[in-house]
Amino acid sequence: MTNTMKNSEDVATIGFSIVAYAGDARSDLVEALRCAKNGNFDEARRLVKEAEKSINLAHNAQTKMLTKEANGENVTLSFIMAHGQDTLMTTMLLKDQMDTILDLYERVFVLENR
């Protein structure tokens, strides 16, 4: 197996890891929104914490890729890696907004149930 082929397989494996972990996090965050909409704020916050764990795993996989390149390895970009990066970044953005969104849902829930 050539070094280029091995590198491409490593990049694909890392890309798939990022997609999987970020996808799991996104699913948890979307479910957290559904829970908050239904007034289940404890479960929503638990799901956000689970999403944070998955985001950290995705970020660790991303760091492996960055380390390879920083160490001088010729890293071949692939569609899987691009998809992984896109999924991770949009999921991180959603996560960054979740505290505000959950707080707003909770305020609305309290006001509607006075």
Quick overview of this protein structure:
Helices cover 87% and strands 0% of the residues. By secondary structure, the chain is mainly α. It has one domain (3-112): Methane Monooxygenase Hydroxylase, Chain G, domain 1 (Up-down Bundle), CATH 1.20.58.80.
Structure, described:
- It is a single chain.
- The protein has 114 residues and is mostly helical.
- It has a single domain, classed as Methane Monooxygenase Hydroxylase, Chain G, domain 1 (Up-down Bundle).
- It has three helices and no strands.
- It has helices at residues 3-37, 41-70, 79-112.
- The radius of gyration is 18 Å and the shape is rod-shaped.
- The mean pLDDT is 91.
Q: Which sheet architecture does the biggest sheet show? A: none
What is the annotated CATH architecture?
Up-down Bundle
Mean of pLDDT: 91
Question: Distance between the terminal alpha carbons, to the nearest Å?
Answer: 68 Å
Active site: 83
Protein name: PTS system lactose-specific EIIA component
GO cellular component, one term: cytoplasm
Keywords: Cytoplasm, Magnesium, Metal-binding, Phosphoprotein, Phosphotransferase system, Sugar transport, Transferase, Transport
Keywords:
114 residues, phosphoprotein, PTS_IIA_lac/cel_sf, PTS_IIA_lac/cel, 87% helix, 0% strand
Q: What does the secondary structure layout of this molecule look like, with pairings?
A:
Blueprint (H helix, E strand, L loop, with lengths): L2 H35 L3 H30 L8 H34 L2
